[in-house]
């Protein structure tokens, strides 16, 4: 499970980074297109009426293309990059759950080892063994709950 979370963190981080770079480059291309539209419009102001009309039409068409690029950048940021960023929080939560699960599992194992030591030292002392079992059994319930809480969603992850 830890390996799955680590792999997801690594690959989703790289994917998010690449997509963010793609979005930035698309936004940069949009900015260059906007500069080109401005230059064409300025050039159109200096030319004769026929060329002026053609350059203005061309700059308006290019401005529409840049509007589509702006929509593309907005969609990339809202529908692709933002949901991928949300996985960062999910991965952090899974790591915290795994850490808690590991600590609880280790605590339970230590308690079971103590119980075994008591059994080996004095097998006739049933009262201390039974009382210790009652101390360990709640830990076992917590361990089972954590197993189902961590592993079942982990498989879906």
TrEMBL record:
It is found in: Cytoplasm, Cytoskeleton, Microtubule organizing center, Centrosome, Centriole. Pfam families: FAM92 (PF06730). One of its GO terms (cellular component) is ciliary basal body. Its main location: cytoplasm. GO terms for biological process: cilium assembly. PANTHER family: CBY1-INTERACTING BAR DOMAIN-CONTAINING PROTEIN 2, CBY1-INTERACTING BAR DOMAIN-CONTAINING PROTEIN HOMOLOG. This is Uncharacterized protein. It comes from Neogobius melanostomus.
């Amino acid at each position: 499970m830890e390996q799955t979370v680590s792999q997801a963190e690594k690959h989703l981080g790289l994917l998010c980074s690449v997509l963010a770079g793609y979005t930035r480059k698309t936004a940069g291309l949009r900015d260059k297109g906007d500069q080109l539209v401005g230059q064409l419009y300025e050039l159109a102001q200096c030319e004769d009426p026929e060329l002026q009309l053609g350059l203005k039409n061309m700059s308006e068409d290019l401005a529409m293309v840049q509007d589509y690029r702006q929509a593309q950048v907005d969609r990339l940021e809202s529908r692709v990059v933002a949901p991928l960023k949300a996985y960062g929080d999910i991965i952090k939560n899974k790591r915290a759950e795994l850490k808690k699960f590991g600590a609880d599992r280790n605590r339970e194992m230590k308690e079971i080892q103590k119980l075994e030591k008591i059994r080996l030292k004095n097998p006739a002392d049933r009262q201390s063994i039974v009382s210790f079992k009652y101390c360990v059994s709640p830990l076992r319930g917590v361990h089972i709950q954590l197993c189902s809480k961590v592993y079942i969603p982990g498989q879906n992850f």
